[in-house]
Amino acid sequence: MPSRVATKSNQALALPALRGTFGDWTYYSAVVSLPELARRVSFGNELHNNKELSAWIQRSLKGGRADEIADYLRKEPERFFNSLVIALYGGTPEWVPLALQEGREGSPNLGSAAESLGILELSGSEELFAVDGQHRLAGMKRLMESPPEEVAGAKSTAISDLVSVLFIAHRVDRRERTRRLFTTLNKTAIPVSKMERIALDENDVMSIAARRMVEDHAWFQSPRIALHHTNNLGSEDSVALTTIGNLYDVLRELFLEASGAKKKDLEYNRPPDAEIERYYKLATKYFERLSVVEPALAEYFNASDLKEVCQRYRSPAGGSVYFRPMGLALMTEVAMRLKKEKEGNWWDWLALLPRRLDQAPFAGTIWSYRNTMDPKHRVLCRDLLLYMCGAKTPPAAELRARWIEVRGEHVNLPRRVKELE
């Protein structure tokens, strides 16, 4: 017998459903109200004999992801889930085909459709558990711990939602078969890539702003921004300033500092349109300020011959830190730290710092002795830049020891820049 932690309900339930087959599985497609689903269905830990493994599954499903999904269900009017796969064990479920009358003369023959439409009757004594969609189920359960109130005349909340469900039959003597389906569904569900999120996501404010910048703003239109999700420019990107993946990361730094929000809120909770507009203007204004800090950027943004500008400022000898994706992200992080920790404008502070990769503190940290970008010592480079501005860093002795270890020679910390007046 499977573990009896599965949720039971004594109330019978009749669900209009479609009956289908896929491979050697028979399934029933139906919709179930969100509160009913949260109450009746448990997690897939019933598939495992090992109690410790089952407990680990329970703990993993009660983590922060459940809170994020509950928050999404509570706040997002355009919320949507794909179907959950629910295994059904025990009880006395019944499938009652509907008797369909033939249509008018000349209408299509119903054929097998007559056998596919019916009512799935659950007695209430069945055990139901999620084979696919455990985190979505966890989010629903978390939401129902403090369900939203329905207000007359207002938009309906998630407790009125009908969730698409695929029911499959589970037999305890064929537990391995159900568990194999569980692992197949979860292993072959490919996560949405960063590039897909940037291209399609209508909730993620960084994606929304990045798309608009590359579509509408002359400074960022093709080929100025390479459409890669990584921070690496390829040989074919000789005229691009950076990649759209790197632009996304830069915007995230800006928006996190400006909003004080958590990263997940910016990714999953679409703000009002007026707020999205403010984020977009913040992004474009940032690059306007940056083009004053680094005149090479102003030259690039206004150039007709992009290749010639890039060859001068992204050369084998180094060039400008702002013409390297890693450097652009690094200087943005430094700028936002200075904005938070120092008096005066961040762009005035940034203008006092070195810009060439062959200068300290870039040389020997993010700019290697092989004349390549090296992310290994990025944090050290950031801390040295912050130290130069008198911002919060590890103790000077510790910072110097780290730099000596990286350089392989005794060096002093870089000279601090003068304080802003």
Walk me through the structure.
InterPro entries: DGQHR-contain_dom, DNA_S_mod_DndB. This protein has helices at residues 34-40, 51-61, 64-75, 113-116, 134-145, 175-187, 194-200, 205-216, 244-259, 263-268, 273-293, 295-301, 306-313, 325-341, 346-351, 378-388, 396-407; strands at 13-22, 25-33, 41-42, 84-89, 94-97, 117-122, 127-132, 162-169, 225-226, 242-243. It is an alpha/beta fold and 421 residues long. The chain folds into 2 domains: 13-99 and 114-189, no CATH class; 195-407, no CATH class. The strands form 2 sheets. It has an 8-stranded mixed sheet with strand order 3-7-4-8-2-1-6-5. Strands 9-10 form a two-stranded parallel ribbon. A hairpin with a 2-residue loop joins strand 1 and strand 2. Helix 1 (34-40) crosses helix 5. The protein is elongated. The termini are far apart. Residues 1-7 have low confidence and may be disordered.
Features:
421 residues, eight-stranded mixed beta sheet, two-stranded parallel ribbon, DGQHR domain, DNA_S_mod_DndB, DGQHR-contain_dom
